[in-house]
Every structure is written in C-alpha cells, then in structure tokens.
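so my prof wants the structure for this chain in the tokens format not the other one, which i didnt know existed until like an hour ago. anyway here's the sequence
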Amino acid sequence: MITGIASVLQLVSGIGLLHKLGYGFPVWAIVKLICWLALSALAGIGYRQRGRTGLFMAVILTILFVAIMAVYYRF
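here's what i got, hopefully its the right format
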C-alpha cells in the first residue's frame, strides 16, 4: 500500500513540476510516464512472485535506464 501511495504522489508532483516549469507534455515526459506505469506494476507483481527476483531486477534496471536516457537526451 505504501508503494502505491508514494507512486501516486510521485506522479502528481512530476506532472505539477512539468506544468510549473512550462514544459507542456513533451515526448520524453510520455516515455517517463510509461516507465512509471511499468515500475508501479512491477512492484506489485514482484511482491507476489518472489521466485523471479533476477528477472524482475533485469527488467527494472532496463526500465530505469530507458527513463534516465529519455530525460538526458530529451527526445
């Protein structure tokens, strides 16, 4: 439950910051939103399937890499 609440707070604050800085909703923000959704879903799935820890860690690291590159290159 805590991860869900923290995840929603992160989403609200991120969208609020985009609005306050006047960025609109660029492509890199959409990529970050998709990565956020994937990481939020994996938190719940990973909690229920602890036997696949290695697979989930590889997927999470890949998603994090994509999210960081999306902001770094701002495509």
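also thought this was worth mentioning. The radius of gyration is 14 Å.
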